[in-house]
Amino acid sequence: MSLKTVAIFKLRWIHISPISDEDIGYLEQNFRFHNLDLKDCREGVQRPKLDIYKHYLFMIFHFPMFNKQTRRVGIQSLNVFLGEDYLITATNDRDHFLERYFNRFRKSGKRSLHYDPFKNNASYLLYKIIDIMYHRTLPVINEIGVYLSEVEEEVYSHKNKDATTNLSIIRRNILNLRRILEPQLKMVDRLVHMKASFFSEKLSVYYDDVHDYLENMWAALGNYKDTLDGLFNTNESFINQRTNEVIKTLTVISVALLPMTLVASIYGMNVTNLPLADHPIGIWVILFILASIVLASIYFAKRKKII
Fold this sequence. Notes:
Elements: E1 3-8, E2 11-16, H1 21-30, H2 35-43, E3 49-52, E4 57-67, E5 72-82, E6 86-90, H3 96-115, H4 122-135, H5 137-157, H6 163-192, H7 204-267, H8 282-303
Parallel strand pairs: 2-6
Antiparallel strand pairs: 1-2, 3-4, 4-5, 5-6
């Protein structure tokens, strides 16, 4: 089993990372949790949820994770059981950040709870956990902001042909972040107004602070989304402009070569008595005339600023 336990006064915190079938069996034997909740823990990433029972809460939180190598946003899922005097946290993948906090709490938690008995309850411990986990989300959003600034420079400098691909990657990450944070706002809002015998109502102001923090991140993502939409439109305008320039250039070349094509077609018909057909330097005269027409066409296009 990967189960770790720390008990301080009346409060017990059990952390499982990563959770296994053996850990599920332990929870079944020692707690009266609903089978569907244990099934959700076993199956891994589910939709965020908050189920209220008579003696405990079951919650699934999602926290965004940013991979700097692939520049993609992923999901870290956290399953939580909260009772009157216990808190159980479980992850399907090992979370070193949360494990470090667990070890720090095991070393210094007794001293802090001794000086502040108000913190000696599972509701406050849950607040501390989701608070540090959501604060870890801010660097993820900052990474998206830095990446967006880099791509913005690429769009306006015309130096990178992959600007459209990079914009699409950022759009996917912003959509993923919004998809993760939106249900979390609703969950934390329910915790703010939670009324249960084992959940301290005095903590509503603390959970409201977390909710405000999430709203600030949501607003930042909204700003990024507006900026991204503007960059998409700008980049599309630049692409259309470059396409039009290429088409104009090809059109001028086609018009310039049209006389040569016409003359070659006429002289290739094997028709007799064509001008200069039998003249010793006829071919050179014709080529000179055609070259003059081509140069005149290009000069006219440049003068009219067509190319």
